[in-house]
Design a protein that fits this description.
CATH superfamily of the largest domain: Glycosidases
Distance between the termini: 59 Å
Helix content: 25-40%
CATH class of the largest domain: Alpha Beta
Structural class: alpha/beta
Strand order of the largest sheet: 5-4-3-2-1-8-7-6
Bound molecules: alpha-D-glucopyranose
Radius of gyration: 24 Å
CATH topology of the largest domain: TIM Barrel
Order of helices and strands: HEHHHHEHEHEHHEEEHEHEEEEEEEEH
Shape: elongated
Largest sheet: 8 strands, parallel
Strand content: 15-25%
């Protein structure tokens, strides 16, 4: 058990350090442009949906644009849908003709993706949906044992291909185990095979087994200490390309999510849904460029951040490395303001990125900063660096109980 934990810690070191990755949802649904669930949500018959495979033909090496964008945004890894629920495979497979190399596209898009990520020095992850709306056994496998056996052979066979044909793969990101459970999928056996083929790999928790990390979706929620987690999130409301979905988050919102993940010991996997030709929606490009400019200056407050006990403020958030506390101010409150409940002596305060000293005074209830600029020194988020005497902690209940009270 201890050995297993040590092995896991070793395998996951880079991932914990990395904090920030790119998710890519790409498939036939990109052609429709109405969300990656269009096939089921609109009840599109398989025979009709399949025809999209004759239209889906992205420009060669579109993945290079994604990888450059990810790199510029400060992301350290990329995870792409090799097969989503629609069942269409972006990789070459001996198990079906319903795959990009054997249809209009005529190329192995997973190979292009892997090459593009590696060219930018990014780690490589494969998303693979167990649920399959196209495969004849994909639903009946739950009540028909012969179908289940065939389907498990198909799924295990494809996972083996993915783990064999593309060199070193860093992450396997399963999705939706419907309609089977871990036993039905024979997940323990499948993941043993995966680890034999890819000893360094990190596996998520969606094959019905906990494996290496949990996957909160569209929200940030930490796990008990010792359990790794990664929040995956869209920039609008759709994973796959959606022409009409204009519910874009702002770069500031995105950065605030990233900071909260880093604060609580998690990772942030931020999605793009490329258009059918492989190009990235302008709104996503804009967000990623702003995030990247910010990460150039402040990335060191995110990468390698350790879980941070200081969390409470009405205008700021926090990350921590050792005894250094970073205050990330998203609503700049002006020249003078305070952080309450800090139970550690602050030795120095600086305004990043340049590091100009900041005046402050501290008592048992707060650290009060003074003579700061009246306008936010940076956008979308300004950062203060506080050097503390020990690992900083925050206790708001202490403040509530012990602040001298007034008279009735
Ligand atoms: C959900 C959705 C899917 C998406 C995934 C990403 O499970 O079914 O469309 O790929 O979340 O986490």
């Amino acid at each position: 058990m201890i050995e297993e934990e040590e092995d896991r810690a070793r395998r996951m070191r880079w991932w914990h350090e990395a904090k920030f990755g790119m998710f890519i949802h790409f498939g036939l649904y990109s052609v429709i442009g109405r969300h990656e669930w269009a096939m089921e949500m609109e009840g599109i018959p398989v025979a009709e949906y399949e025809k999209l495979a004759e239209q889906f033909n992205p420009k060669p090496n579109a993945a290079r644009e994604w990888a450059r964008l990810a790199k510029r945004a400060g992301m350290k890894y990329m995870v792409m849908t090799t097969k989503h629920h629609e069942g269409f495979c972006l990789f070459d497979t001996e198990f079906t003709d319903y795959c990009a190399p054997k249809r209009a596209c005529g190329r192995d898009l997973v190979a292009e993706f892997v090459e593009a990520a590696r060219a930018e020095g990014l780690r490589v992850g494969f998303y693979y949906s167990l649920m399959d709306w196209h495969h004849p056994d994909g639903a009946r496998c739950v009540e028909d044992e012969a179908a289940r056996k065939r389907f498990v052979k198909y799924i295990h066979g494809q996972v083996r291909e993915l783990m064999t044909n593309y060199g070193k793969i860093d992450i396997l990101w399963y999705d939706v185990p419907w309609p089977l459970d871990a036993e039905g999928w024979e997940s323990a056996r499948m993941n043993r095979m995966v680890r034999e083929l890819q000893p360094g790999i990190i596996i998520n928790n969606r094959s019905g087994l906990p494996e290496d990390f949990s996957t909160p979706e569209q929200h940030v929620r930490g796990e008990p200490a010792g359990r790794a987690w990664e929040t995956c999130m869209t920039m609008n409301d759709s994973w796959g390309y959606h022409k009409a979905d204009d519910n874009w988050k702002t770069p500031k919102q995105i950065l605030r999510y990233l900071i909260t993940c880093a604060r609580d010991g998690g990772n942030y996997l931020l999605n793009i849904g490329p258009k059918p030709d492989g190009s990235v929606p302008e709104e996503s490009v804009h967000i990623l460029n702003v995030v990247g400019e910010w990460m150039d200056k402040y990335g060191h407050t995110i990468y390698g951040a350790e879980p941070c006990d200081v969390k409470r403020s009405c205008f700021a958030n926090f990350t921590r490395k050792g005894t250094t506390l970073y205050v990330h101010i998203h609503f700049w409150p002006g020249e003078e303001w305070a952080i309450g409940g800090i139970r550690t002596k602050v030795k120095s305060a600086k305004l990043l990125p340049e590091g100009e000293p900041v005046k402050f005074e501290q008592n048992e209830f707060h650290v009060r900063f003074k003579d700061l600029p009246s306008e936010a020194p940076d956008n979308p988020i300004s950062v203060l660096e506080l050097e503390c005497e020990s690992i900083p902690t925050q206790d708001m209940i202490f403040v509530r109980k012990n602040m001298p009270r007034g008279k009735v």
